[in-house]
Amino acid sequence: MGKPSDLVQGTLDLLILKTLSLEPKHGWAIAKRIQQISREVLQVQQGSLYPALHRLEQQGWIRSRWSETETGRQARFYSLTAAGRAQLEREKESWNRLSSAINLVVEGA
Amino acid sequence: MRWFEKVRMLLRILFRRGDANARLDDEMQFHLEQQIAENVTRGLSPSEAHFAALRAFGNPTLIREEAISYWSWTWLEKFARDVRYGARTLTRSPGFALVAILVIALGIGATTSLFTIVHAVLLAPLPFRDPDKLVMVYEHFRESLGGDGFNVVSPADFRDWREKTHGFQDMGAWRWYGFDLTGEHSELPEVVEAAAGSWNLFSVLGIQPALGRTFAPEEDVPEGRHVVLLTWSLFQRRFGGDASVLGRQIRLDSTPYVIIGVLPRWFTYPDSSVQLWVPYASTFTAKDFDAHAYHQSHVIARLKPGVSAAVATDEVSALQYQIHLANPTKPVAEEVRYRPILEDVVRDVKTPLIVLLCAVACMLLIACLNVSNLLVARGAARRKEVAVRSALGGGRLTLIREQLTESLLICLSGGTIGVLLSIQATQWLASQWHDLPRADAIHVDALVFAFALGLVLLTALLAGLIPAISSTGKGVFAALQEGSRSLGGSTSRAVLRKTLLTVEIALTVTLLVSAGLLFKSFLRLRTTDLGCAMDHVLTMKYGLPEKQYDTREKIIAFHESVLERVRGLPGVQSAALVSTAPGDGYEGDDVFTIPERPTSSFQLQYDALYRTVDPNYFTTMRIPLLRGRFFSDQERLTRDHYVVISKKFADQFFSGDNPVGKHISDVRIGAAQPYEIIGVVGDTLWDVTKPTKATMYFPILSGIPDQASEATIVVRTTEDPLALSIPIQQQIAALDPALPVYDILTIDQIVGKTTASQSFSATLVLAFAALSLLLAAIGLYGVLSYLVTQRVREIGIRIALGAQRSQVLQMVLLDGLRPVFIGLLIGLAGGAVAGALIRSILYGTSPLDPFVFVAMVGCLLLTAAASCALPAVRAATMDPMLALRNE
């Protein structure tokens, strides 16, 4: 296993929104989830996770409330708002466009 | 939904910052715990797990800062910090802060008050339905003699316009009127101002009565049913707001009128003196109602959608020309003119109000410059501090922002005090201003607060920006290089301060000159000779109701018994009767012809004021006889065809010929026979602010009902005239207890009443100018003291090297007075311009009145010299040794 890759600039929002689209999660779980799904390739730095969560909340795309974790501890759970869901669609679309464009360039050349 | 979430977040973060911080800490703590737990399960020892987790986590403070920066209130935090700094620097020099705040409070307070009045009086729409669709239509004589070209309308013209033109949606008319009001059961009589309105007037204005109904068309005819509408103030005052007054009767001039409605509280058109309304036509005789040459009405027209006022007026104008042609020998106007109703209401106060607003704005600007000047001086004292901070990396913008915050703090505190002052002052101003239209509509509303806030921001910017920019920037590092022993100091800053001072002086001079002109004009008015005795003369009015006093004999009997009783009172030198005393108003004018000097064309129509007087009037009022004789007791009852004319009358219509023995005829109010001119008397003024007008005096002893019923007793006394007012009233009440006596005034008070608004605006502008002068003096003193302090060392060296004290004194004085002289020159030019602009409200005073200019220049120079003297003397008496050691 190589060194975990840094996230492509600007994709953290997309990852967080996508991760939250299934069910509400707390910060730790979001980071873990991204790591697992990407098979340990993507490491979310805590230093960028919490500012990102606050930014998304400020934008009204996610909301948060206190809830109990499986271990019985209180933690802050984030969930997607309707606006967040729409934003996720937009981000997904622009990501697809971007990645296929990059693909075209990389494969075609 | 999204904006709602956002606002909720913003508010939560704004008001519960502590919670939000705790939440973030908690969240990060949780994250750390999870990481530690994971590390432990990987087999690390608890302490190793802890440190590994911390390492992976990074700098928690940084993360927190970064997260917080998304909370979008950081600007507020920065601002709060600036405010803390600003407050701290201000409290360090409380004297400066106090002066600055007071200066700004005065400026903002006065400006806000004037704005409140200007807004409510000049700008706010009248409280009618679609008031911008309402215009006033007036007659206009092409050969207009004086006046503003807007002539009141005759009833027949109005009726023709309304019936025969279709450009306007509708037209209503009203006229001033007055009544003696009594109740059914000998309640206290009083004289009330009234108005007569056409039946459709209220629907033209879009007014619904508060109670009852307005007039019906069949009531609005001459000799119609006697009905009356009460205004809200009379309804409350005289009837205690009792709704059951509807249908009850009151007596107006002894005739019973049925109350049919009450107008809304806010309806105070044409002004708040009007107590009740009667139908328009009921105030005319059938003959007058059909007259085209009898002008007294005001016509309000509502525009049709899509038809402009000009087009609609043109149609009326065309009709009016036909009417004019059909009445060639009578004064019937050829054209009509219109103006918006708001302009019509405020025309007399517009110029004074704008002058006052400009004067306070000027004062505010001076206050602003003064604070700016003070801030520049403080900036100088803080040069080192600013330089050090810049050197350490303080951004220029940050430094400017900080200084601006300081001036904002001053202006905010000043503004708050100012607005509080202004709320009081506005009420006072509105109540002191005699005859201010729409005074009852003046109130402080959100717009006024917004204006005050805008003013605060503007002042803060104006006062703060110049010093802030000048004290930061590239030059500041010079302060660090410049040793403590530098001599030249900050000459550029001195130049800046002198420039500010020059502007301040220029504005002050402009204000002083305007104030001087207004004040001189007012003094002129107050000392104007009315052309008659003005000391120790008491006047009071009564009107004999035509119902009881319906014959010539009854009227004469009453008038003569009143005079006889009054003349018998101790302290009375003489007493007489006149319809309207000098200075007390127009009363009315009339056209006539002179059989000895016939004129065919209407353009040369003769027109003069009329008065009715008793034989003793001219001697009582000391109006000189120039030719012929006064009336005698013989010109009475039907032997009344004699007239006395004024000098102006003789000059205007007889141009040098002896008028005595000539005749005038076709007087509308009089009989058909010609009146013989028996005498010429000196001119009197009907209004101190207006030029004299040709006047004809008819004998009051004709006793003709209506013409001789209204009388003003004029009484010349040996002692204080007002002390006689009660005894005279008692004499009148003894003759007829139901007869109200009103307007008990000395001639001096009549003049005071007419000139009240001039007195008011002159006094206010003078007060503003005096304040500005004080501000300028403070500014001058401040600048010069500063310059002297800056040059202590230089002056010390000069003295040590043998400079004469007088030379030093001269040098410092010249330095201080140079901006004064430049400012003075600019200000004089400004004063000349201001004088030209206010020419229309000056009376008997040239806009370039040399006396005013010289007096004001002298005033300013004296003040300037006084405020320069102290610093200059201090410089000249300086001990050189102390000055040089002082470091």
Give an account of the 3D structure.
The complex is a heterodimer of chains A (109) and B (887). Chain A is an alpha+beta fold and 109 residues long. Helix content of chain A is 56%, strand content 15%. A three-stranded antiparallel beta sheet of chain A has the order 1-3-2. In chain A, helix 1 crosses helix 2 and helix 1 packs across helix 4 (82-108). The longest helix of chain A is centred in the last third of the chain and has 27 residues, at 82-108. Chain B has four domains: 2-72, no CATH class; 152-332, no CATH class; 348-526 and 756-885, no CATH class; 545-738, no CATH class. In chain B, helix 6 (94-123) runs antiparallel to helix 12 (341-381), helix 17 packs antiparallel against helix 23 and helix 23 (756-790) runs antiparallel to helix 25. In chain B, a hairpin with a 7-residue loop joins strand 2 (168-182) and strand 3. At the A-B interface, helix 2 and helix 3 of A face helix 1, helix 2 and helix 4 of B.
What fraction of residues of chain B sit in β-strands? 5-15%
What is the β-strand count of chain B?
21
**Which regions of chain B contain 5 or more consecutive residues with pLDDT less than 50?**
484-489
Q: Hey, which two chains have the biggest interface?
A: A-B, 23 and 29 residues
Nearest-angstrom radius of gyration of chain B? 38 Å
Q: How many angstroms separate the termini of chain A?
A: 29 Å
Number of domains of chain B: 4
**How many E-type strands of chain A?**
3
**What is the name of the CATH topology of chain A?**
Arc Repressor Mutant, subunit A
SS content category of chain A: alpha+beta
Largest sheet of chain A: 3 strands, antiparallel
SS field, number of helical segments of chain B: 27
Strand content of chain A: 5-15%
